[in-house]
Amino acid sequence: MQKKYKAKCDWWIFVLLFFSPPLIILAEPSGSTATYVLIAAAIFIYLLFFSILLPLSYIFEEDFLLIKAGFFLRVKIPYADILSVSQMKMSFFDKAPVTSLDCVKIKLPMAKYESKIFILATHAWGSPYDYALVCPKNKMEFIVELEERISRLPS
Predict the structure, then answer these.
(1) I want to staple 133 with a disulfide (CB 3.0 to 4.6 A). Which of 39, 60, 96, 145 is the partner?
(2) Are 116 and 75 in contact (CB under 8 A)?
(3) What is the pTM of this model?
C-alpha cells in the first residue's frame, strides 16, 4: 500500500531564494553587463531549485521507500537496507537535498548507494555509511510508519 509524505519547507529557504537575487540585482547600476549576468544567474538558480529540489516527497511503497526530488531524481531504498532511523537537525557539515533543517536520518550501507550520492546525504568527515536525510511534514508519523514497515520484514 502506497503512502505519500510531502516535504517540510522552512521559511528561510523562500526568503533566501526570493529576496536575495532581486536585492543583488537592485544594487547593481542598471544597464550594466553585470546586471544582465545577475539576472541570468537568478533565473538559472530559480529554475534549478524548482526542477531539481521541488517538488520533494517521500512515498512508502510495498517493499521500498521512494525519495522523489524534483522532476527527475528518484531513489528507491528497500526497507531491508535500512540500518537505523533517527531524528536529527541538519548541520553545516551535512549535504543533502532537503528543504528543512529538521530531518529524519535513514542510515544505509554505503557501498550500495555510492552512485546516488546527490540525493543521499554525506558527512564531511566521512563514514562507513551513507544516509538519506528526509524532511517530511509529519516527522513523527513518518518515523513510526517507516519503523513499522521495517519491523514487518521477515527475519
Answers:
(1) 96
(2) yes
(3) 0.77
